[in-house]
């Protein structure tokens, strides 16, 4: 029986619901992202992994409707589940259709639109799965209802944004330098642009206009103001006088100042104050480390190595601290803090748990990037053998060979474009990832 105004009953979570949680976490959180990367590099394991993930997801979906024990009021997790399953079915159906190679008549005309729809759905699926897993955690505890909704949205959206920023920085660090060079922009140009846009949104949405200003409203609004002000400066400083890209530390300063503001954010509970303080210090650390990296490790260069594939160990710090900042902020909502305080959990233990989750997320991201990089390299070696090169070398314009291990891997390929059939790429018969194309351009 669910009490009036509550989101869940007092019953414990039963075995079936625990199975639902574990199976869906395995399917959506591990297997589908792995299958996505395997599809990008045309691995023969792509289809088996996706089939297993789909089977687990379908089984887990029905388990979620068959449990006893804890009962739940109407919630976003339950409503969004059907849409997520529909996205999975559409994505799989489009992929199956493309594999049939139906290109005669009208099917040849609509094929490019099917390819586009397949790619867009595939790119949206991991993001939708992340949202659904967050909604599942919220629903399991009956949180984020009534007056708590706005605060929950702020924590989970901003926390997810920090994690996404960390993932993007990891991809650009390990496989994205070729893409950055082709854009003719520095990384700080894109960082500053996003910061300025986000700041504009925060400036006009953090206060309920027409009502009295609260202390937190002032802090959040001024934080938005400094974001768009600093973002505009970062955009301006991201180019040299001759138009070439230039590094700058403005985004890092914004991260540092945001961390300072959040570390001093007033809270009602001591544990909440401590969690927000550590979150702020972690974010400040990310900004400070980024300043040191750009100014003293890289000395305003894009990379240390010529091809950008051998980063300094210090460069991993900023992305990881952003992962940790995201999880700390998502784990610091009012209701979570009240629950921990009631259970007698100290802030040190909780922070260590959140940092442990951050390490696992950082590990998994690096593993997926490694799978992509190794798979793309193997395709490059295959291309070299078919084009008359030996021992996996690519011939440069000056006649000297270049090792495939030093071919710059391209983050632009780190998307679901590769999940389409081989002949759906630009150029008939071109079945190799963009990293291979990058290598061919040097011939």
From TrEMBL:
The keyword Zinc does not apply. Keywords: Membrane, Transmembrane, Transmembrane helix. The chain crosses the membrane at residues 16-38, 45-63, 83-100, 120-141, 153-176, 249-265, 271-292, 313-332, 352-373. Residues 9-101 form the DUF2427 domain. Residues 418-443 are annotated as: Disordered. Pfam families: DUF2427 (PF10348), Ytp1 (PF10355). It comes from the Eukaryota. Residues 129-372 form the Protein YTP1-like C-terminal domain. InterPro entries: DUF2427, YTP1_C. This is Integral membrane protein. It comes from Tothia fuscella.
